[in-house]
Fold:
Amino acid sequence: MARDSRSRKVGPGLVALGSAAIVAVYATGYIRSEPTEAAVIAAATEAARQSLAQSPLVIPSQTAAPTQTSNPTATTTQTGTATARPAVPTATSSTSTGVQAATPTKAPISAPTPAPTPVKTATPVPTQVVSNGTYRDGTYSGSGTSRHGGIDVTVVVNGGRIVSAEISRCSTRYPCSYIEELPGDVVTNQKVTARYISGATDSSRAYAQAVSAALAKAG
Amino acid sequence: MIRVTATTPEIEAQFRAVRRYVRSPKGRLFLILGAILGLGMVVTGRQAVGVTAIAVGTSVLLDMGMWAIRRREFVAPSGAILTGLLIGAVLSPIEHWYVVMNAAAFAILSKHLIRTRWSNVLNPAACGLVLSGLVLGNAESWWGALPDAGLFGALEVLLLGLLIVQQINKFPLVLSFLGTYFALFTLATVFSDPAVATEVFRAPDVHAAIFFALFMLDDPPTTPVRYADQLFFGALVAAVSYAVLLRFGTVYYLSAGLLVGNVWESWRRYFQRPASRSTGTALADAA
Structure:
């Protein structure tokens, strides 16, 4: 028998039949799991939408729209895609500035510029000004999920600013060390960034979803 | 037309040796893996080159050292190169260098230390990946399966992999594995929460399963020859992989399934060994 198996090869017809059966089984499983996949994608999309809606005000400094002057330490250079929100939430930022001013913190205090005066920066660099004091102080937790597992985060807000966004639980199939730089990004940018780590896209997305959920409680 | 003419018998002998190697399953696998990983490096980026180089370098050096200790002679590390390529293709391109080195070292050590009279018991690459995952908790991206190259990548892996499978006559093994694997997860979508199997049917997991079946599962020294044994072996590996993923959720579930299959095959060979050991001894010498 062993000698037969060595000398004879499986016929192409049998291989084609077996392959067709496998493709049929695979297609069935794919179709059966499609609604779940669509739900995961929808959740991720919603999380991304919320992260943009709930992140602190980011206004391109070149715009002539009413804006805020800021301490240089609060100015961050955004290297990713444009994340500037519509001008509508500006008022929200102003009110939050008031909240921040009432809270003695080390964070820089922003002073609103008179509305009619268009402010233009001297530098042509597309620097963006981040307002402060959007969130309520406290410690907030949030969860995010992906096809590879879930991530919990604990976001600490102090003086209206995000001071940490650490991963408190990581149950993804891939190690969370791959996305260890994302908490620093959140603190630096004071918002959920849309940056996904290469090779850990789903984990990055789950992290963003978790931080968005936490910030939703702080907003 | 250019004619290559051997000037000396030594060169002619070397030319014949190279031609013989290229035509052998190992040589063909080397060329095919090189083509696939070359495209993978273009798609994935230069980090993939680094992880592959570290894996191959570690495997080759350690393998040559182990052969020197065991036989006190130089043995061409052709198998170690393949082991390194496979480990490099599975581990993430952004993996730490010491994780890659450890995986390769585990693989080569298992090949030399865990063996019967006939051959090594465990698939070296699978063993390295599982041990590395257990000890260091690393991830697997399976970039070498070309999940980022779209349909073209999947077709390249499939078509080139089938050349290998056809040469080593392992179609029953591969078909049995893939059939059982997808059937179990399809049943899981019917009888339990479809979420448990969603990722298995999509990139990169589906690419990983195909790459695994074509290039790792059918390693000749550690897999059966008879068709009936191949069918059982493939189904066993698929069932164990399925169970490991659902029970533990580990990233190395495919390799873990293969190791269980390897142990079963070794046990089967031991208890179904022929009365005469002459053939086995010859095989052991050749391994």
Q: What stands out?
A: The interface with chain B takes residues 1-2, 5-6, 9-10, 14-15, 18-19, 21-22, 25-26, 28-30, 32-33, 35-37, 40, 147-149, 171, 173-175, 178, 197-200 of chain A (CB under 8 Å). Strands of chain A lie at 58-60, 68-69, 75-76, 111-112, 128-130, 138-146, 149-158, 161-170.
